[in-house]
């Protein structure tokens, strides 16, 4: 599980498969890990209270947070989120997912200047060699070379020159009649 083995300074990429051909994969996000917290630390850290789903607010984005594991004694209560199903707390598949989530032990954090979320406007990687290097079918892939390939670092530098850091576009499956994702863009400009 990536959250167990990843270290501060490591890069994580999310690729979207457009077709079965490797060269047709596009980049949904890139993040460099700047902090690694336990679930308890994540829940209790004031910086991440906005990531706790809040259904008292109608904005869709306020209901999507991923800070869903509330510490209770030596265990965690999984609070409801838009990712939950009805009766999620009594559902075997959902309990299995909770166990898998918590096995990761950590939440991986990336600060804005080290995070790139392209969402529905996913971008094509510059070369097929870079796609081949980064691609894995399901799960994660560790690049054994202790040095991040220069081509990848050059790509990151180019994105920063184009001011393409942080939240760039909403997720592909975002509701068409909801513009609450714009709060991310506004929050990004404040930083």
Helix-strand blueprint:
Blueprint: H1 2-5, E1 11-17, E2 25-32, E3 35-38, H2 39-44, E4 69-72, E5 75-78, H3 92-103, E6 106-109, E7 115-117, E8 123-124, H4 128-134, H5 150-161, E9 166-167, H6 182-190
Parallel strand pairs: 7-9
Antiparallel strand pairs: 1-2, 2-7, 2-8, 3-6, 4-5
Could you please describe the fold and organization of this structure?
By secondary structure, this protein is α+β, with helices and mostly antiparallel strands. It folds into 2 domains: 1-34 and 110-191, no CATH class; 37-108, no CATH class. The chain has 6 helices and 9 strands; from the N terminus they run H-E-E-E-H-E-E-H-E-E-E-H-H-E-H. A hairpin with a 7-residue loop joins strand 1 (11-17) and strand 2 (25-32). The two termini are 32 Å apart. The mean pLDDT is 81.
Domain count: the total is 2
The H-and-E topology, N to C, reads as: HEEEHEEHEEEHHEH
> What is the CA–CA distance across the termini?
32 Å
If you average the pLDDT, what whole number results?
81
Strand content: 15-25%
Low-confidence stretches: none
Q: Return Rg in Å.
A: 18 Å
| Largest sheet features | 5 strands, mixed
Count of discrete alpha- or pi-helical segments spanning 4 or more residues: 6
Number of strands: 9
- What proportion of the residues is helical, as a percent range? 25-40%
Helix/sheet category: alpha+beta
List keywords for this structure.
two-stranded antiparallel sheet; single chain; 9 strands; alpha+beta
Overview in brief:
By secondary structure, the chain is an alpha+beta fold. It contains 6 helices and 9 strands, in the order αβββαββαβββααβα.
